[in-house]
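Usage

Read records sequentially. Each one opens with the input sequence:
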Amino acid sequence: MKIFFIHNLYFPQERGGAEKYVRRLASEATAAGHQALIITTAEADRQWEVDGLPVFGLASDFAAIGDRPMLRRYVWQLANLRGKRRAEKLQQILAREQPDLVVTCNMIGLGMACLEIAAKYRHVHILHDVQLLYPSGLVQFGLERRVDAWIFKIYRAWLRPSLAKVKKVVSPSLWLLDWHRQRGLFAKAECKVLANPQPNLKAGVRPAIRADRPFRLLFVGQLEKHKGLKVLVEAYRLLDKQKFTLTIAGDGSLAKWLSEQTFEGLTVLGRQTSEEVSNLMSRSDCLIVPSLVWENAPLVLSEALACGLPAIGSDFGGIAEMIDDDELRFMPGDAISLADKIKRLARQTESSRQASRSNLASEPKAIWGATDYLKALLAFAFDVDK
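and closes with the structure output:
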């Protein structure tokens, strides 16, 4: 089976989990005996290979949009929503290759006209964030009303004719799907919630929590305000530094500010590879996901769950769906609440520190892997499960 995966960024241009998701799914499709091909944005129309897979680049300056002021970004969005020239190029590629299935993901930068072309084939659209509702994709907790401001209603009205062509939609979280449908998008599409596949990490690699060392906290992600980094640092300030340590891995605009924090037990690392993140998790006792914006299904949280690392996260959006224990969720933006949850978790594990493994940090949860995910996606696309 020939499967095209269409996403606005592809390796080595990776900004977040969506790019890793697409690359992994394409790799899994290849391993399953299918022919996977990629369409993405590039500085000019061109073709290359990644992991032995053909990648077709359509000319777009989307990769540089993040460096522009907010107003210029919105102007750019309006100017690039259709992407007619890219759609014509995409139509040529698909007509020549005749795919059995087209899987589209984030289309901002490629254009809605490309989505309409993809919808002419057997097609599934995958939701990753709220960019179809709110162009920046960053909706701050407590400011949700901004999504329904008149300017964004106009934006969605502009998108709606193109999105109406989509017949099948997959969302990793029920929250994300509901947000779209509540605002009139994909109202007539067949929709399915499929949690993103968890990474293939080694099970049981984490050592037992010991009484002779501090409880080790970990943050992995963008060093940005919207990720709740300042909330985490404030919460750590409230903890006993003899009993807790904090390791922060990632890069971003708060890197300089973070380097000026001199708390005992605080270790700041740069951006880490997937293998390095796995190693960090194997040496940690708890992952912290303190996001201040509505998130869908953070990859780092999937990685933690896959290797049995407990995670404390903000109590809203997709994060709340992934962390099913009330005691491991806290009020977004509340450093005191976060510090309290951390201390409670540490106390809960103390009683099992004499055991070889902690019941909260031993075996990973059952892994929903890429193989099963791909089978479920194909079943949905080809109506096998009906």
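Summary fields computed downstream for this record:
- Residues 235 and 340 are 9 Å apart (CA to CA).
- The longest helix spans residues 335-350.
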